[in-house]
Design a protein that fits this description.
Layout (H helix, E strand, L loop, with lengths): L17 E4 L3 E5 L63 E6 L13 E6 L7 E5 L12 E7 L10 E10 L60 E2 L11 E6 L8 E3 L7 H10 L4 E5 L3 E5 L8 E2 L7 E2 L2 E5 L5 E6 L4 E8 L9 E2 L10 H10 L4 E5 L3 E5 L17 E2 L2 E5 L5 E7 L1
Parallel strand pairs: 1-7
Antiparallel strand pairs: 2-5, 3-4, 3-6, 4-8, 6-7, 9-13, 9-16, 10-12, 11-12, 11-16, 14-15, 17-23, 18-20, 19-20, 19-23, 21-22
InterPro entries: Kremen_rcpt, LPMO_AA14, WSC_carb-bd
Protein name: WSC domain-containing protein
Keywords: Copper, Disulfide bond, Glycoprotein, Membrane, Metal-binding, Monooxygenase, Oxidoreductase, Secreted, Signal, Transmembrane, Transmembrane helix
């Protein structure tokens, strides 16, 4: 944050902070001198251009030499400060944020690019869309940076200006992920850095994080993996309990498919599977949720990058892929033992706890009742019945999970056994 030139010892005055409206747009002014902004002279010297002048469009440099604005012989002439030939060649500018109130704690890894304005700097007014889920800053505020790397028309350089800032209108609890260096990926989008990205550090004496083919200038645009506008892939998508990415097949690696309310997220799938007493949840093909309690074999485990399809309900999360399932632990204290044939006399689980369950039956209500009675096993049957015990009694295990196919009376998405079929769970 330009500590080498003493900026760190001249902080903004108390209360001076740039407001970033979550889900809105931050509008700023770019100028070659403060005199040509609304911050000076009551705005009387402003025009739509950065130098306070008036000109017709299109505006471009000469057809000779490098074609830069200003001129080859007078780089400081009109437009020279923009370091470009015309608007189409303007490289783009960006905003980045660090959730640290102490400037000495700002690093490349926690300073995350959050918005890009393509083909800027050009005119005085510039707009930066702000991600809707950007979380509030700590009580001491955040630090932000304005970023620009021009392409030619002067010495290869990079520009950065830092500000105190804060986020308004946000109740988000998301966290920003660890920023990684961007990669030059023009013509090969698959090579772009995915997720939160660092600012570009290039042509510096030390600390460079970008190397480009032929030393071409790295811009804040698609060539470096930065899409126009709000950067919505900046969040920490690590969900607790991740087990791995696995090849799926028929029969399914996790045998029970469930439907969640609304569009799928990892949290919704985990909650749905946990409510059914399963220890594992799997998300697949963006919108599918599967449950089970047996960890898949290592022989079908894949690289994590193979499960890279965005979740239907949260594009920052990854929900498996076609016939590839991302598996998570649900945190359940119960695990499924499967679907069993039950006998009226004797029952597989000897204690009938149906009457202790208030309201319509669900798996979680039955297992809570069994836990309250200090039983090690619980089971749901015929949509409405709950049984508990400390051992599995007489009875043969059903050949397929599909034989337990009756919806729970209190949860149409849950499975509560069937006729003479009981879903059995054990405490872990």
């Amino acid at each position: 944050m330009q500590a080498d030139r003493g900026c760190n010892v001249v902080p903004p005055q108390n209360g001076d902070s740039m407001a970033l409206p979550a889900g809105g747009t931050f509008t700023g002014e770019l100028a070659i001198n403060r005199a040509f902004t609304t911050l000076s002279w009551g705005g009387s010297r402003t025009t739509q251009w950065t130098d306070g002048m008036n000109r017709s469009e299109p505006w471009h440099g000469p057809s000779t030499g490098e074609g830069c604005l200003g001129s080859e012989t007078n780089p400081a002439g009109p437009g020279g400060a923009l370091h470009t030939q015309d608007e189409s060649r303007a490289q783009g500018t960006a905003l980045a944020i660090s959730y640290n109130s102490d400037i000495t704690n700002v690093t490349m890894e926690n300073l995350v690019v959050i918005s890009v304005a393509p083909n800027t700097p050009w005119k005085r007014i510039v707009n930066y869309p702000i991600p809707a889920d950007l979380p509030p800053c700590p009580s001491g505020g955040c630090y932000c940076a304005w970023l620009w790397v021009p392409d030619g028309c002067g010495q290869p350089n990079m520009y950065m200006q830092n500000f105190k800032c804060h986020v308004t209108g946000s109740t988000s609890t998301k966290r920003l992920g660890v920023a990684k260096p961007p990669v030059y990926c023009a013509g090969n989008p698959s090579a772009c850095t995915k997720g939160p990205k660092q600012m570009i550090a290039w042509h510096q004496l030390t600390g460079n994080n970008v190397v480009t083919p032929g030393d071409v200038t790295p811009p804040y645009n698609e060539k470096m993996g930065f899409l126009p506008g709000a950067q919505n892939d900046i969040y920490d998508t690590t969900v607790p309990g991740y087990v791995g990415c696995y090849t799926d097949s028929t029969p399914r690696v996790l045998p029970q498919q469930v439907t969640v309310s609304g569009s799928l997220t990892i949290e919704k799938c985990k909650a749905a599977c946990k409510s059914q007493g399963h220890t594992l949840a799997g998300v697949e093909f963006a919108s599918e949720c599967y449950c089970g309690s047996v960890t898949p074999s290592n022989s079908i485990k894949l690289a994590d990058t193979e499960c890279n399809m965005p979740c239907a309900g949260d594009s920052s999360q990854q929900c498996g892929n076609a016939w590839k399932v991302s598996v998570y632990q649900t945190g359940s204290e119960w695990k499924s033992e499967g679907c069993y044939v039950d006998l009226v006399t004797p029952r597989i689980l000897s204690v009938d706890r149906t009457s202790s369950v208030s309201g319509l039956m669900t798996v979680s209500k039955c297992l809570d009742s069994c836990k309250a009675g200090n039983y090690g096993f619980g089971g749901v049957e015929f949509g409405t019945q709950c049984f508990c015990g400390n051992a599995i009694g007489v009875g043969g295990k059903a050949g397929e999970e599909s034989q337990c196919d009756m919806a729970c009376a209190g949860d149409s998405q849950g499975v509560c056994g069937g006729g003479n079929r009981i879903n059995v769970f054990s405490r872990v």
